[in-house]
Amino acid sequence: MQRKKILVTTIVMALSGLCSITAQADSGQTPQQWTTYAMDASHNAYYVSAFPSVSWTFMVPGSNDINRQVVRSVTTIRDLVGFPIGVAVAHGTVYASNDNGYLYALNAHNGHLLWSANAYNQLMSTPIVARPGSHEMVYVGAGNSVFTYSHAKLFGVPGAQVIRGADVSAIEAFNGRTGRLGWVYHTKGEDMPTPTYVDGKLIFGNGDGYIYALNARNGTELWKTAIRSFVSMSSATPADGGRIIVMGGTHPSRIYAVNSSSGKLLWTVHPEDIFSSSGGDGTWAAQGNVVVGQIEIRRPNTVKGRSSSEELAVNAQNGHILWTRLLGSGKIPPRNKDAVPDIADGTIYTGSPVTHNEYAINLQNGNILWQKHLPAGMKAAPLVVGKWVIQPTGSGAICTLNRQSGVLTHMYHNRSGGFGPQNGVLIGKTYFIGSNTGYMEAIPLRKIVG
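Now predict its structure.
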């Protein structure tokens, strides 16, 4: 597989007002690696540094040429050109996965394209950036949400293993400086969830019912553990200092923990009344030995078409449920059923695609400290900085709330499309986020918080 350059220089120039593509930006103001979804296990993707306030827009080739009379569905547009997940920022470069199958490397200071690489299927995982050897590598998971006919019909068969994903399903490793393919590891099911990098290993769940560990240097399989559930978008979350890896799966809907060294299955949790694909949709957050996640539940007497969001905390070492908290009910959301939590200073901040509320929840006991209704649903992890909580929403509005009271203090109206699971990333004074319609933006923090 060879990397494929995409000529977007004129587009970037027009949007950013800057000239030709330059070398990588100074990396001293950005992280040196990006080892898990939303930067760390707590999912508060805020890197404190002197990175300046910059503004630019990178547009995916073809995204501005879609004929809306032909392609009317926003979901279809997202599946064609959308940035479905949060970016990774390392060594002055923004690494962004796109549903068009390309991984883009952009200069963090000006948005200029450094290189792009084709993975030959949709990319829905946050790029992982690490240096397991002499070269910095960028890892992405390729795959889609398609079920072949032979596996779609298995949903009605009790105990049958269902594999999710068609076409190219693989973990691919690219040279961070050149974009050249280093290695590829193929799997039977999709690799949409984000892996985590622990002690030289990439650990991830996927669509074929296994959790894998690969040698990050060369892609060699180190271990794989059967869980039978397919993992759709539940990214691997490290807990207990990286010794335990937690994720959720669907069919059956369960939460799983494995030992990162051996792959031994440590525990399995089956939350009561868990519904639909909820187990495999949500990514968990961790602080110490406590992991927190959101699921969707439906009780026997629930009205048709409605469900409830539930937050729960689990002891990462033994799988004991510490507490559960019902957040409220509403219309069943399409696709991803759960929002990703962010843990900051002993408080969980999260939205709900079911209730369209933002919540602050006490990590220790699950008490709701405040909640605020927002104009649209949300699925991504919010971001906490100073006195603010910043939450992107499905309408494209980025809402800023007072961290202590939940009062909505400002709303940034993004005009480049809405947000689903895309979490914002704050580096110094700049907020990076990609939209469902194929725009990657660097937005000054002052514009977000007002």
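The first strand starts at residue 46 and ends at 47.
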